[in-house]
């Protein structure tokens, strides 16, 4: 149970004044559901404004306060989506437009009666040959003295929220901050010059002071490290089993290729771990196509040789099926029993698999999360392999580990190339094996960046490609347009693109996206894999696992909307066969400098680790860490720079605390428990109570 001291922080956000059903949605969108979330919703930046006497004194892009008198209201034509404009003039008679888009315009009319001077604060922009202020931050009747602060926090918003609204909620949340015991040692706090927790949080909304921000980021990193160490300690408490294989089964494998040096090395590392009684906790990192499957197979055979079972967990049904087929083929000459269990297995089929697992006749099981439901019992599970690790949360990992009578060894595999500096934050103290060498004979994928406006040429190119007997992927960012959300309206919709391409290519085209029923989705991919369909139009559902060597062209629409890690994974779907492959990255117009640099990087290299490192430089680590998708290591406060600077410190401190007080029962340990709750790493604390 959550400590009482935290109750005021965990109160629902509805308990703040002014939070009705209307703002609940946008608040939720920002992840602000508790009072503490609001208190931690730190400003993205601060604006400093200056007052100007007339428009001539201000320049474009500047934050200003100015007295203006409305002279005319221009509402959009009924039914049109145009903006609402109010033309207003300064004391010298210069004219400026005040502009609103969407619903925000409703208030404008009342606030700006024609002929009455108002004080306006906002950012000066250009509109044609006129100046304009879009969505003014403040409109006041009284003089500039009442305009609020000249320096003001700017919060991240979502539609339906305004800056003053959020600022008001923050103020209420801050007023409710309880006094909490300090989890940082007084000496360390003094030495770093960091403020106490409550002061830091309050100051965080007033300044960008580095010490203030660092303290708050450190807290989050400390919580994360501590939770990961608690998981690790729990793993240690549970005895594992030393497994040594005799190599007989591995010797019977007839692989059509020789292992790479990196594969051999990784297998040796795994074998070494499994021979220890302490349960293995190892991450196998290897780019798409690096050959992780065969490494996993060797690990599983070690378990089977030692008389145990192995289970392999895949993130999707499709991937589970593919692994099953691949492994079954490779296992052919060994006589090892392998089975597939997904959520779709029903009735007699399912019963028979459950029996086989219980009596041990099934030696290797491949499946989706269905393999760790309560009803699935193994005779003697020795190894768990988790493919695409980042898609699974810590909780799932633990529940699977709890399956064996003795903790099984765990091998996690990921193709997400995480920069070295961040591995610690994501995977805590897992040991890492890296497949940093691709199998020989891989051809480079010819990657080109093409303007979206050259669509006709691209489609013609696809036509030639299909005519030559090859297959192609066409990837879109979304399934369909989202109504009434203007900035998303231009996102290419997979459905619309499919309809257009179908007119041209007929039944050769098939559509697959995440909103289809799994059977239909799989059937679509199957049609493509078997060669019946020649062009697969898809969203990112094909990001992992689809393996069709005859597909040698990939078109990615609005490539700038994807993360680089994602583009890299998508591109990995081609270049799998002997033929030369091509990847076309279509980009929209008006791309930022960073946007251009990111696409250029994709063109330049195919090295996932380099892409990861440089993307990090270009735009920060949130996306790479997969925080948005998995929530596993969601860092809301610490930014990349702080991670690099403070993570080693926080991790060292967490380790020290664990060494001295592994049960977190000392006063500082108790304080650290609060911290774990505060940052929603309470899975760490839960382990403590169980142990
Ligand atoms: P990933 O790391 O993306 O899971 P896979 O295990 O699917 O990669 O391997 C990709 C392809 O490379 C497969 O077709 C596999 O048979 C092949 N492969 C794996 N190891 C080697 C090797 N040492 N030499 C040649 N081909 C290999
Ligand atoms: Mg794989």
How would you describe this protein?
The chain has 691 residues and is an alpha/beta fold. The longest helix has 28 residues, at 210-237. The chain starts with 6 loop residues before the first helix and ends with a helix. 39% of the residues lie in helices and 17% in strands. The strands form four sheets. Strands 12-13-11-14-15-10-16 form a seven-stranded parallel beta sheet, sandwiched between helices. Helix 13 links the parallel strand 12 and strand 13 (364-367). It has 25 helices and 22 strands. Among the domains are: 45-154, OB fold (Dihydrolipoamide Acetyltransferase, E2P); 237-435, Rossmann fold (3-Layer(aba) Sandwich), CATH 3.40.50; 446-605, 3-Layer(aba) Sandwich (Rossmann fold), CATH 3.40.50.300. The chain binds adenosine-5'-diphosphate and magnesium ion.
Main sheet characteristics = 7 strands, parallel
- Please bin the fraction of helical residues: 25-40%
The class by helix and strand makeup works out as: alpha/beta
The dominant shape is globular
Terminal residue distance? 15 Å
Gross CATH architecture of the domain at 237-435: 3-Layer(aba) Sandwich
Instruction: Determine the number of helices (DSSP H or I, runs of at least 4 residues).
Output: 25
């Amino acid at each position: 149970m959550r400590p009482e001291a935290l109750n005021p922080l965990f109160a629902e956000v509805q308990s703040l004044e002014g939070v009705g059903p209307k703002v609940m949605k946008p608040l939720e969108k920002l992840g602000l559901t508790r009072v503490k979330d609001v208190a931690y919703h730190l400003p993205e930046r601060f604006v400093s404004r200056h007052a100007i006497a007339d428009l001539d004194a201000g320049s474009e892009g500047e934050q200003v306060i100015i007295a203006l008198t409305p002279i005319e209201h221009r509402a959009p034509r009924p039914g049109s989506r145009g903006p609402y404009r109010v033309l207003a003039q300064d004391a010298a008679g210069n004219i400026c437009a005040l502009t609103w888009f969407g619903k925000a315009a409703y208030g404008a009319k009342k606030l700006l009666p024609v002929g009455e001077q108002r004080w306006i604060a906002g950012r000066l922009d250009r509109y044609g040959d006129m100046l304009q202020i879009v969505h003014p931050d403040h409109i006041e009747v009284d003089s500039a003295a009442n305009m609020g602060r000249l320096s003001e926090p700017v919060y991240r918003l979502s539609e339906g929220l305004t800056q003053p609204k959020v600022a008001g909620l923050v103020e209420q949340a801050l007023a409710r901050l309880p006094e909490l015991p300090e989890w940082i040692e007084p000496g360390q706090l003094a030495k770093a010059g960091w403020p106490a927790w409550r002061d830091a949080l309050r100051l965080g909304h007033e300044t960008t002071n580095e010490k203030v921000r660092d303290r708050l980021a450190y807290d989050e990193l400390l919580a994360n490290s501590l939770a990961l160490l608690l998981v690790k300690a729990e793993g240690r408490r549970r005895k594992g089993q030393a497994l040594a294989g005799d190599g007989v089964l591995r010797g019977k494998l007839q692989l059509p290729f020789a292992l790479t040096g990196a594969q051999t090395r990784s297998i040796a590392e795994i074998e070494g771990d499994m021979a220890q009684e302490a349960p293995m906790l190892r991450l196998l990192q290897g780019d798409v196509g690096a050959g992780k499957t065969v490494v996993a197979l060797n690990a599983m055979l070690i378990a089977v040789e030692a008389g145990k079972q192995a289970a392999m967990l895949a993130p999707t049904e499709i991937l589970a099926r593919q692994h099953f087929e691949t492994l079954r083929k490779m296992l052919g000459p060994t006589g090892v029993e392998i089975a597939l269990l997904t959520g779709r297995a029903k009735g007699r089929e399912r019963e028979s698999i459950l029996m086989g697992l219980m009596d041990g006749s099934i030696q290797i099981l491949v499946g989706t999360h269905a393999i760790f439901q309560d009803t699935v019992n193994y005779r003697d599970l020795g190894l768990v392999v988790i493919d695409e690790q980042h898609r699974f949360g810590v909780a799932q990992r633990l529940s699977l580990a709890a399956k064996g009578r003795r903790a099984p060894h765990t091998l996690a595999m990921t193709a997400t190339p995480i920069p070295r500096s961040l591995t610690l934050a994501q995977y805590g103290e897992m040991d890492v094996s890296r497949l940093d060498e691709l199998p020989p004979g891989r051809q480079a994928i010819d990657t080109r960046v093409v303007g979206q406006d050259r669509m006709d040429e691209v489609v013609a190119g696809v036509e030639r490609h299909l005519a030559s007997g090859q297959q192609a992927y066409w990837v879109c960012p979304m399934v369909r347009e989202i109504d009434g959300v203007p900035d998303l309206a231009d996102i290419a919709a997979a459905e619309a693109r499919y309809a257009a391409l179908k007119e041209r290519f007929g039944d050769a085209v098939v559509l697959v996206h995440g909103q289809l029923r799994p059977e239909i989705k799989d059937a679509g991919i199957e049609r493509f894999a078997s060669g019946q369909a020649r062009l697969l139009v898809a969203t990112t559902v094909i990001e992992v696992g689809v393996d069709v060597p005859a597909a040698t062209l990939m078109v990615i629409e609005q490539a700038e909307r994807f993360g680089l890690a994602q583009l890299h994974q998508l591109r990995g779907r081609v270049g799998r066969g002997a033929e030369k492959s091509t990847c076309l990255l279509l980009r929209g117009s008006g791309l930022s400098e960073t946007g251009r640099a990111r696409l250029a990087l994709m063109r330049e290299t195919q090295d996932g680790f380099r892409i990861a490192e440089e993307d990090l430089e270009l735009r920060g680590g949130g996306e790479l860490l997969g925080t948005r998708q998995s929530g596993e290591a969601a860092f809301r406060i610490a930014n990349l720079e702080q991670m690099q600077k403070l993570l080693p410190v926080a991790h060292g401190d967490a380790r020290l605390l664990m060494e001295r007080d592994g049960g977190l029962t000392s006063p500082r340990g108790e304080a650290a428990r609060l911290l774990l709750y505060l940052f929603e790493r309470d899975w760490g604390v839960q382990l403590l109570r169980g142990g």
